[in-house]
Amino acid sequence: DITRQGFLLDDALCLRVRLVPSFPGMDRVSLAPQRTAPVEALARSLGTLLTSPTASDITLCAGGEEFPAHWSLLACRSPVFKTMLESGMHEAVQRRVEIPDLDAVTVSRFLRFLYTGSIEGARELIQSPAGRWNYVDSCFYEVLEGSDGQLTWSETTEAKGRICGDLRPTTKAGCSGGEGAMAWSALLSNGATITVALQDGKLLGEYKEKDAEVVKTEAHNLDAEVRVTEGWGNLLRAADKYDLKDLTTLCEEAMQARLLVCNAAAILRIADATGRRALKAAALAYTTANEGQMRQVQQTRAFDGLSRELIAELYEVFFNPPGKRKRPRPDEEAREFPDVQDWLLLSNAEMRRACAERDLPTGGDRADLVALLRAQTREEDDRPRAVAARLPPPSPPPTTTTTSSSSSPPLPPSSRKPLAESQAASPAAKAAAAPRPEAGAGAAKRKRRSDEERDARRRERAAEAAQKEAELEVARAEGRRCQSELEGLFAERLGLEQAIAGGLAEPL
Hints:
alpha+beta, 13 strands
């Protein structure tokens, strides 16, 4: 039964080897006990204030529970708490802060981070191990909960059949879960013992048979992963509300590290709601990695909670990945969507692409996207005017007059023109013989010509934009038609797969 014990992983045999070094002439080497770092000791000491609130002078209320805290520590760690408590607000007078938009578990984890700089030892998001837990390869075991609340551990293997046992809460230091972990142990029907502990949504197990080494496992539950993801999202909102940058970074890294098919849609929704561009890009990239993964994410319950805008953005990234956009030709515009156009005529997907090529946020509804693009356009239009306003005014050109050509010295014979050419150029010669206008009039004429050329170029760009808009409208209609056909094919295939699974149809 080497698969269940973790020795066979992806058709590879994994062996655990224990090396015992031998040094001739030395019987035993004594090692100094490991010392705790001063910072860790300080964090552990501050964490004890949460369990035994000595000299607490303020109370946080959330989810029907009260959490005693310390004024000075809250003000030191959070700028929002500092402003609230030092400005004479109602909370400072009553020494009581109501937090109706956060649940009790989130506030407990939030306070743990405020006091210790981490959430280790905080209240677990998953309170019961009941459910199906997957570990090595395709192996899994189940924890069943009876009507009386009794938990039963059960696993079926090819070698030993069904193994089961009743789980009892244990005070052992959390199995491999560390301090604060919820742990249970059971004596199984084959004489072995199993100890499991919940930690951060994972079930850590230690399986021990007689005269054998302990086999450690780390199991995952799909529903638990989604609930843990939602818990991290709530903690991220708390960090934003009370301006804790380090907790914000911790939440983003934790959710990005836990990206799975079952919670990818939930992470995408949380990242879009909180404005986390890097986390949103990671969730989009994970979901649209390939067609199979996209289908699996679509079949999760978390995908049903996505808004219409997010689903459209997801399809846009899937059909037009950012790394596969064509580079513009030299005779084409540098941007796919130039500034000289009406943003309201674009679809939401096109406005997101326009925001992406301008390094603007792509989240939000249609009104937010239009406001971002219009603000960017106004900023780019005002930039040349601001530069021109800072430049000194040009000095007027000197007003000099020239005399007629009759006073000029005669040309040398080598530079004289033929008779026919001189006759053809006689009007020009007459004009040259007349007194020249002042240089200021020439400058005004050149300015008018430059303005006319600029207006002509502007009208030409507007005509090109109108033509491109017409082409885009045709492309949008074709894209909507293709998307509708593709969704129909997806629905047809899904129905066929469900029929095959139910035995109502034969596979092709």
